[in-house]
Amino acid sequence: MTLKFELGPGRMIGGSNPCFIIAEIGQNHQGDIEIAKKMIKMAKDCGADCAKFQKSELEYKFNKRALERPYTSKHSWGKTYGDHKRHLEFSHEQYRELQKYAKEVGIFFAASGMDEMAVEFLDELDVPFFKVASCDANNFPYLELTARKGRPMVISSGMQSMATMRRVYQTVKEHNRNFTILQCTSAYPLDPEDVNLRVIAEYQKEFPDIPIGYSGHERGISITVAAVAMGAKVVERHVTLDKSWKGNDHEASLEPSELTELVRAIRLVERAQGTGIKQMLPCEKACHVKLGKSVVAKVAIPKGTVLSMDMLGVKVGEPRGVSPEDMGQLVGKAVTEDVEEDGSITPRMVDVYNNKG
C-alpha cells in the first residue's frame, strides 16, 4: 500500500500532492437537473476538484415499510418517505447527462453508491472512485463488493468506532490498496465540540500507509482548514446555492462564496506547510544581517589574552562576529589582536578557532 495514489485520472492524492476537495452536492439539487448542472459549474468555478452526488436504487436501499412511512417534515417532497426520495433521485440517463456536463466543465464527477445496486451502476458509469457513505462504513458485504471492483475508494467514518474502522481497513485492504478514510461526525449541522479533529491524528497512527481525510458538516470553513493543517489529504463539504432551500443538508452546506474561500484557504495553508526541515531560509537573510547578534567584548582585551566567559557578551554587532551559539568554543582560546571594549569578536581574532573555521 502507499501514502499516495491516483484518485482520478491524472490526479494524485497523498504525500505532497494538493488536498483533493470534494464539493458534495448530494441531493441539494432539489430534484432539478438544471439546478444540479448549475451546482456542478459552481463547484468548478469555486476551485473544487470534484462534484459529487448520492445515488440510490431505492428498493435496494430501503425496505417497503421505510418507503411507505408518512413523511411530514417541512423538508418533505412527498407524502411518504418513498415519494420524497423518488423526487430527489435522478435516473440513470440523467446521471449520464450530468457526468457528460461535468466533463465539459472540466471537473471530476462522482457519487456515493448508497446500496450495492447503485455501486454496480456507478461502476458501469466509470466513475473515477467510489465514495462510501458513513451509513455503509460497517456494511462489510458492501465494502467487500465495492473494494473488489478495483476503483479507488473514499470511506467516511461517521457513527463508527475505532474497532470498526480497523476492521474496515483490513477488509478493504485485502482487495484494494488505493483507499482513504475520512474522519466524520454524522450530525447536520455539526457543533464544533463534536468534530473531534484529533481522530485524524489517531487514524494517521493506526493506518500509516493510507492517506487520511476529513468530511465535515459544521458551519463555516475554519475547522475544515484546520483539518488540512493536520494532514487531511481529502476533504469533503456539502454545498448549496441557497441555505434557505428545502432540505436537511442545506444548513450544514457551503454557499459559493464560502466554498471559494475554503479552497483559497486550503491552498494557502498548503503553501505554508513547508518541508519540515528547520533551517535559516533565504527570506530570513535580510533580518539576520540587520538584527542577528554576535559575540562582543565586555571589556578591552589585549592581544594574547586567554578568553573567559566573563569577558564575553552578546549584542547586535558591526562588523558581524562569532555567533552566540559558538561562544563556548571561544573560552580558553587566545585572541590574536587587541579587541576594544564593546567590539565584535570575529573568527580571525581568535587563535585555533579561526583555523578550525
Tags for this entry?
357 residues, alpha/beta, 8-stranded parallel β-sheet, two-stranded antiparallel sheet, 14 helices, 35% helix, SAF_PseI/NeuA/NeuB
Please give the structural blueprint.
Blueprint: E1 4-8, E2 11-14, E3 20-26, H1 33-46, E4 50-55, H2 58-61, H3 64-68, H4 81-88, H5 92-105, E5 108-113, H6 116-125, E6 130-132, H7 140-148, E7 153-156, H8 162-173, E8 179-184, H9 198-206, E9 212-216, H10 222-229, E10 234-238, H11 256-273, H12 285-291, E11 294-297, E12 312-315, H13 327-330, H14 353-356
Parallel strand pairs: 3-4, 3-10, 4-5, 6-7, 7-8, 8-9, 9-10
Antiparallel strand pairs: 1-2, 11-12
Radius of gyration: 30 Å
> Strands of the largest sheet, in order across it?
5-4-3-10-9-8-7-6
Mean pLDDT: 96
Helical segment count: 14
Annotation, overall tally of beta strands: 12
Estimate percent helicity: 25-40%
| Structural class based on helices, strands and sheet pairing | alpha/beta
What global shape is seen? Answer: elongated
> Major sheet, described briefly?
8 strands, parallel
**How much of the sequence is in beta strands?**
15-25%
Question: Unreliable runs, pLDDT <50, ≥5 residues?
Answer: none
What is the string of helix and strand elements?
EEEHEHHHHEHEHEHEHEHEHHEEHH
Distance between the termini: 47 Å
Give a quick precis of the structure.
The chain has 14 helices and twelve strands. With 357 residues, the protein is α/β, with parallel strands linked by helices. α8 (162-173) links the parallel β7 (153-156) and β8 (179-184).
